[in-house]
Write a structure and sequence with these properties.
Blueprint (H helix, E strand, L loop, with lengths): L1 H20 L4 H29 L2 E5 L8 E5 L1 H24 L8 H20 L3 H20 L4 H32 L4 H8 L4 H19 L7 H5 L5 H25 L6 H20 L4 H21 L3 H32 L10 H4 L1 H15 L5 H15 L4 H29 L19 H20 L1 H16 L2 H8 L1
Helix pairs in contact: 1-2, 1-4, 2-3, 2-4, 3-4, 3-10, 3-13, 3-18, 4-5, 4-10, 5-6, 5-10, 6-7, 6-8, 7-20, 8-10, 10-12, 10-13, 11-12, 11-17, 12-13, 12-16, 12-17, 13-15, 13-16, 13-18, 13-19, 15-17, 15-18, 16-17
C-alpha cells in the first residue's frame, strides 16, 4: 500500500510531463491529463479505505533517518481530505474541457499540465511529514497557481496576480525564517520530532514559534487580516481555475494549521485564534453582502468559511478539532460547485454581474437547482452537509463557552450564518429571478456556448458529491472524530514518524 502514497504525488507529475510533450494534440493531452488525475484520485480513495481499516502508512523516501529525510505519512486526517481534493480536480478538468471554447476558458495547452503540477503540490502538502517538504509543496502550488491565474494575459489578471504572488511570497519568506527558527531550536524539521521537542522549549520560544506559523499558514488560508489578496485575485481567473483555488488552496493552509498547531500543543494561542476566527467570519460575510458580482460574493465567503475551521481548531479540544476537520471536508466540494455554477451563469448570460443577469430560473432551471443545493449548504441549512458542519463547530464552542473569546466566536458563527443566507438570497434574486437586462451595456459581456453538455455534466457530478457528503455525514463525522483523536493524542504519530 505504500505505492499508493507515492502514486498520488507521482501520477500528476507524470501527466504534467506527458501533457506538455503532446500539447499540440488536444485529444491525447486531454486523455493523459484525465488518466493521470483519475489515477491519483483512485489511489487516494484506496488509501483512505486502507488507512481507515488498517492504520497509518509511512513512506521514508530513500530510507534516510527521520532527522534529515523526507517522510510521507498517510494517516487518517491526510487520507480523509486527500480523496475529496483529488476528485474535485478531476471534475473541474472535465468542466474545463467543455469551457475551453468560451471567452472564460483557460488555455488548455498550459492549464492541463499546470493543473497536474498543482495537484502534485496539494497531494504532497497533505502527505508530507516534514516542514521543509511542506514548504516545497507550497511553492509548487504557488508557482503553478500564479501562472494559471495570469496566463490569459488580461490586465486585471496581471494586477490581481501580482497581489496574490506578493502576499504568498511574503508568507513563503516567513516560512523559511520559521524553518530556520525551528531547526535552530529543535535540530530537525520533521514534524513529529519537532513537535515533541517544541513542547520542551521555554514558553516564550514555544509560543513565538506557534504565533509565527499562525501568520505563515494564516496568510495561505486567508485569515483576517491577511485575506485581502483573495477577493481581488480569484474572480479574475478563468472559472475552472477559480473553482480549484476556491475548493483547495486556502484549505491547504487550514490543514497545515490543524496539523502543526495540534501536534505542537499550542493551546495558549487558542483565545487569539478564536478572536481571529470571529473577525474572519464576520468580515468575510459582511464583505460578501457588499458585492455585486457572483464571483466576488463567493470569494468573500471563502474567507468567512475559513473562520469556522479556525474556530474549531482554536478550541483545542477533540470535539473542536473534529468539527474543523468535518467542516474542511464539507467546504471543499461545496465551494467548488458554487464557482462552477458561476461559470454556467457566465456562459448563459454573458456576465456574472448581478445588475446584468436575471431570469435564469425559468430559462435554465437545472442551473438554478445546481446553485440552490450548495448555496443552502453553505448557509448551513438542514439537511445539507453545511448544517452538520456548522452545528458541529457551534456545539463544540458552546461546550467550552466559559471564556469571552469562545462566546464571541459562537456569536460570530451564528451571525455569519445568517449573513451568508442573505448573500445567497441576493445571488438568487439577481441571477435566477426577474428578467435579464436585454441591453449588453456592461463592458466585457460575451455570449459563448462552448461544450455546454460537458460543463453541465461536470457541475452535476460535483453537486451529487455534495449531496453524497450530506447523506454520509454520520460516517464522515466518525472518521473526523477518529482523525481528531489521533491529532489530539499524538504519541502514536510521533513514534511512527519520528522513529
Amino acid at each position: 500500500m505504500s505505492t499508493l502514497v507515492a502514486t498520488t504525488v507521482i501520477a500528476p507529475l507524470l501527466c504534467a510531463a506527458g501533457g506538455l510533450a503532446v500539447r499540440g494534440n488536444t485529444p491525447a493531452r486531454d486523455g493523459i491529463t484525465i488518466v493521470g488525475l483519475l489515477t491519483a484520485a483512485a489511489s487516494a480513495v484506496a488509501l483512505l479505505v486502507d488507512v481507515a481499516n488498517n492504520g497509518s502508512r509511512v513512506v521514508r523516501v530513500g530510507d534516510w533517518s527521520p532527522e534529515l529525510g523526507i517522510v510521507l505519512v498517510a494517516d487518517l486526517f491526510a487520507t480523509l481530505v486527500l480523496p475529496v481534493a483529488l476528485i474535485i480536480i478531476v471534475v473541474v478538468e472535465i468542466f474545463a474541457i467543455g469551457q475551453r471554447r468560451t471567452a472564460w476558458g483557460a488555455n488548455p495547452e498550459l492549464a492541463g499540465p499546470l493543473l497536474c503540477v498543482l495537484t502534485a503540490g496539494v497531494s504532497l502538502a497533505f502527505l508530507t511529514g516534514d516542514l521543509f517538504t511542506l514548504f516545497v509543496a507550497f511553492e509548487m502550488i504557488l508557482v503553478s497557481s500564479y501562472v494559471l491565474l495570469t496566463h490569459q494575459g488580461q490586465r486585471d489578471q496581471i494586477r490581481s496576480g501580482m497581489t496574490y504572488v506578493v502576499m504568498n511570497l511574503l508568507a513563503s519568506t516567513l516560512f523559511l525564517f520559521g524553518l530556520a527558527l525551528i531547526y535552530a531550536a529543535t535540530g530537525t524539521v520533521n514534524i513529529a520530532l519537532a513537535s515533541e521537542r517544541i513542547a520542551e522549549l521555554p514558553d516564550g520560544v514555544r509560543l513565538g514559534i506557534g504565533a509565527w506559523f499562525l501568520v505563515v499558514f494564516g496568510t495561505k488560508a486567508a485569515l483576517f487580516p491577511l485575506f485581502s489578496w483573495l477577493p481581488d485575485s480569484y474572480p479574475t481567473a478563468p472559472t475552472t481555475i477559480t473553482a480549484v483555488f476556491a475548493g483547495l488552496l486556502t484549505k491547504v493552509g487550514v490543514y497545515a494549521m490543524i496539523r502543526f498547531h495540534n501536534l505542537a500543543g499550542m493551546d495558549e494561542l487558542g483565545p487569539i485564534m478564536l478572536l481571529l476566527a470571529a473577525a474572519t467570519m464576520i468580515v468575510g460575510a459582511v464583505g460578501a453582502l457588499a458585492q455585486r458580482d457572483v464571483k466576488r460574493i463567493l470569494s468573500f465567503h471563502i474567507v468567512s468559511q475559513i473562520g469556522y475551521m479556525l474556530m474549531g481548531l482554536g478550541l483545542f479540544t477533540e470535539v473542536g478539532t473534529t468539527a474543523a476537520i468535518l467542516f474542511l471536508v464539507h467546504h471543499m466540494p461545496v465551494k467548488t460547485v458554487l464557482f462552477l455554477v458561476g461559470g454556467l451563469i457566465e456562459n448563459e448570460q454573458g456576465t456574472s454581474t448581478l445588475a446584468y443577469t436575471g431570469g435564469l430560473a425559468t430559462k435554465r432551471p437545472l442551473i438554478a437547482a445546481f446553485f440552490s443545493i450548495p448555496a443552502l449548504s453553505l448557509a448551513g441549512l438542514p439537511p445539507f452537509s453545511g448544517f452538520v458542519a456548522k452545528f458541529a463547530v457551534i456545539r463544540a464552542g458552546i461546550a467550552e463557552a466559559s471564556s469571552i473569546p469562545v462566546m464571541v466566536a459562537v456569536v460570530a458563527a451564528v451571525g455569519a450564518g445568517a449573513l451568508t443566507l442573505l448573500s445567497m438570497t441576493k445571488i438568487w434574486l439577481g441571477v435566477f429571478w426577474g428578467e435579464q437586462d436585454p441591453t449588453p451595456t456592461e463592458p466585457g459581456r460575451i455570449q459563448a456556448a462552448g461544450n455546454r453538455r460537458a460543463m453541465v455534466v461536470a457541475t452535476g457530478l460535483a453537486v451529487l458529491g455534495t449531496v453524497a457528503i450530506s447523506f454520509s455525514a454520520g460516517t464522515l463525522f466518525d472518521l473526523s472524530q477518529r482523525a481528531a483523536a489521533e491529532l489530539n493524542a499524538p504519541r502514536t504519530y510521533i513514534e511512527m514518524v519520528g522513529s
